[in-house]
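Minutes, project check-in
Item: structure for the 142-residue chain
Input as provided by the requester:
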Amino acid sequence: MTAINQDEWKEQADEPEVRIDGRVDPQREDAHWQQAYWAEPYYRAECCYDDYAPAYCVGYIGYAQYGGRFDEADKSLCANWIRIKGDSRLSLEEAMQAIRAAWDHARGQEQISEQEEYEVLAETALLPPKAAPARERTLAAA
């Protein structure tokens, strides 16, 4: 590696977290799927993470790009899969299952992030706190 390349890598290490459209953190999504892919119902033992990774990428990047409903974006997602699948051994049907799983996970992570943001703002008194659940009020009255 040349000195120029080393400097470039050093600069990249100092860059802020990459998020796509504020919705998806690709590094976080990739780390999740590296740990979880083998437990998915569509997992095949003869396939490794490298077979699934392009499909997951299409799913979570697709969610950031298109948002909304999966079935409205599935044709574009399918085209993206065909374009980037590389050496993956997944069939289109298997890939679409992984793409859907990654889409759903990214959507869930966005909802969690929005809830966390709301809680931080509420703690700093920028937003009113949410009403306590009815169960807690009942216990307090007893």
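Outcome recorded: Residues 92-123 form the longest helix (32 residues).
No further action items on this chain.
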